[in-house]
Amino acid sequence: MAGAVEARLAELGLALPDVVPPLASYQPAVQSGVYVYTSGQLPMVDGTLAVTGKVGAEVTADEAKELARTCALNALAAVKSVAGDLDRIARVVKVVGFVASASDFTGQPGVVNGASELLGAVLGDKGVHARSAVGVAVLPLDAPVEVEVQVELVDA
Questions:
Q1: Which residues lie closer than 8 Å to 37 by C-beta, 6 or more apart?
Q2: DSSP element (H, E) containing 63
Q3: What's the pTM value of the predicted model, to 2 decimals?
């Protein structure tokens, strides 16, 4: 049975996707004590990247912001895979967003807002977090954006 967080996703017209399978030797998420750390989540939908390239060149900032939102949704799926229930999230502690950027692109914070805004819309005050938004030369599979999330859980 879906909990309150998944009901909120449905209200927003979203569904929790399947966990994106690892591209290499790692786990999508691990739990250590009361924290869950996700691996970097790419904007995969049904196993594929819809868009590739650098933000500020082949990909617009608005497109990348939407892709960051997809990354955050994938991160929630990864959290659920180890926590069992998204209603166990006490709060999102930290979000790190990586943006594959053209050499003159400086709008990384606006891109990563896509992830932050999704977490806020879904989790309310529990979605408020510390964050880093980093421009990088290239990401796996030529993805425009990658997001990792750390959450604190309440006891089951």
A1: 29, 30, 31, 148, 149, 150
A2: helix 61-83
A3: 0.96
